[in-house]
Specification:
This protein has 16 helices and 16 strands. By secondary structure, it is of the alpha/beta class. α7 packs parallel to α8 and α15 packs parallel to α16. The chain binds 3-methyl-2-oxobutanoic acid and zinc ion.
């Protein structure tokens, strides 16, 4: 068999992933994800778009200062201002800092979005790469909307940016339009028609609008691409990006006909997926490949029988290989701090002492109310206790009176920017009264688009989990909260969403 070629994994969960509807992460959350990406051993972490906002800049800087191992990329449009700001944040990664600059090359984008002629785009691309090269040799250039770009023009741009010093050229399917056969041919065309192509690595970046992001990325690898840009759980703009876990496990599982490998530690895939869900509140569909709740569940008797006899009858990869731990009942009232910490670590949560103490206190409180504590309860505790800081809005207390003959009344006390405030409201039921009181205290104009309540595990003592989706202008966010009291869970979810909205509001994404 031919020697396996290593495919570099460029993770853009913190940049393109964050553009997912409802997703927004603060600096601490981004850093937690970045630490998990470091454990996954991805080759490159795209940490953000430094010029987009102060928050993005600080997040890229913090990730560049903290993460060891992977390279750290920051996205910059093809202009000097973006690139200067980008390097200001990336410089802390030293030679591992990568400037990722881009400009659209398709006719439709050049004419309507950029209002530039092809020659001007070519000039801007070359100038941007040269400018970036003055900071670092680690420069990636992307032809935005490459798939709808005239091939001859793209070949010209690719040759010119490689001449200007780009060491990686990315050929994105920005709108998720291509199909595997076509994308394969595009990459082959560049390999065969760009004279200096061997001086750079070809990267691919696929969106999932037609559900083909992973298949297209595999086709591109077969055509000679050596870097794939992807996200954990496939989150991203619109229908998302190429799913990291699917791509990596395809290359591992079908090594027999795909002579490629990655450096990813696959046992860290499930913890990464779990952590991202906890941080963003964006749940993974149960039937999602690799990391969905049903991905390794065998329902049919004939399948269960086969797996008991010989695992490989129905399992093409083992749950252990993706880091799925036995989901048995884990902890209870008598479990100590050590067992609690160990299980959290198995789930991928590495908490500092202060955070661990907070989470353990909450665990003890929950164990008094609930006999059996499952992994999902632990996810909710981590989401509630650890992933929240720093917060503008904090819930202090709620008191609710309601019943068949009573008008529901909620008294809510909160801290807003560390100042304690309190109010009471009547409502059409206790949840309505509670959310109205919070609305009054926070003066929010955000619209509640969705409110759902579910139970995290079985039993009447289960924690209720509430998810809300709020919209303010064209910004949407998701908030989650959990408690054995669903009114409290509702208040927490609503306040969580308001906190995320305040993070998102801070991002000024001029023309992005
Ligand atoms: O989808 C896209 O084209 C992008 C580029 C900026 C790489 O995200
Ligand atoms: Zn993209």
């Amino acid at each position: 068999m031919a020697k396996a070629k290593t495919i570099r994994i460029f993770d853009t969960t913190l940049r393109d992933g964050e553009q997912s509807p409802g997703a927004s992460m603060n600096i601490d959350e981004k850093l937690r994800i970045a630490k998990q990406l470091q454990k996954l051993n991805v080759d490159v972490i795209e940490a953000g778009f430094p010029i987009a906002s102060e928050g993005d800049f600080e997040a890229v800087k913090k990730v560049a200062q903290t993460i060891k191992g992977p390279q750290i990329a920051g996205l910059c449009r093809a202009n000097f201002k973006d690139i200067d700001r980008g390097w200001e944040a990336l410089q802390y990664a030293g030679e591992k800092g990568r400037i990722h600059t881009f400009i659209a090359t398709s006719d439709i984008h050049m004419k309507y979005k950029l209002k530039m002629k092809p020659a001007q785009v070519l000039e801007a691309a070359v100038k941007a790469v040269k400018h970036a090269r003055a900071y670092t040799p680690n420069v990636e250039f992307s032809c935005e909307d490459a798939v709808r770009t005239d091939l001859k023009f793209m070949a010209e741009v690719v040759a010119a940016v490689i001449d200007a010093g780009a060491c990686v050229v990315n050929i994105p399917d920005t709108v998720g339009y291509t199909i595997p056969f076509e994308y394969y041919n595009i990459i082959r065309y560049l390999k065969e028609n760009v004279a200096n192509i061997e001086q750079a690595i070809i990267s691919v970046h696929c969106h999932n609008d037609l559900g083909l992001a992973v298949a297209n990325s595999i086709a591109a690898i077969q055509a000679g691409a050596e870097q794939v840009e992807c996200t954990v759980n496939g989150i991203g703009e619109r229908a998302g990006n190429c799913s990291l876990e699917e791509l990596v496990m395809i290359l591992r599982t079908r090594h027999d006909i795909l002579p490629f490998k990655t450096n990813v530690v696959t046992e860290q895939l499930t913890p990464a997926s779990r952590l991202l869900t906890t941080v963003t509140g964006i749940a993974v569909q149960p039937n999602k490949a690799i990391v969905g709740a049903n991905a390794f569940a065998h329902e049919a008797g004939i399948h269960q029988h086969g797996v008991l006899m010989e695992k490989s009858t129905y399992e093409i990869m083992t749950p252990e290989s993706v880091g799925l731990k036995d989901n048995a009942l884990v902890l209870g009232k008598h479990s100590g701090r050590h067992a609690f910490k160990k299980r959290l670590e198995e789930l991928g949560y590495d908490l500092e002492d202060e955070m661990l103490n907070k989470a353990f206190e909450r665990f003890k409180g929950l164990a008094d109310l609930k006999k059996e504590i499952y992994d999902e309860d632990l996810d909710a505790i981590v989401a509630d206790e650890v992933m929240r800081a720093p917060e503008k809005y904090k819930l202090s207390h709620i008191t609710v009176t309601c019943g068949s003959f009573a008008v529901a009344t909620a008294t809510v006390q909160m801290e807003i920017d560390d100042i304690s405030v309190r109010t009471a409201e009547l409502g059409d039921g206790p949840v309505d009264a509670t959310l109205k009181a919070i609305k009054k205290l926070t003066k929010t104009k955000a619209k509640l688009l969705q409110y759902t309540v579910g139970s995290i595990t079985g039993g009447t003592d289960a924690q209720g989990e509430v998810t809300v989706r709020l919209a303010e202008g064209d910004r949407t966010v998701i908030g989650r909260g959990a408690s054995t009291d669903i009114i409290e869970a509702s208040a927490k979810a609503y306040i969580n969403a308001l906190n995320r909205l305040s993070v998102k509001r801070a991002k000024v994404q001029e023309g992005l």
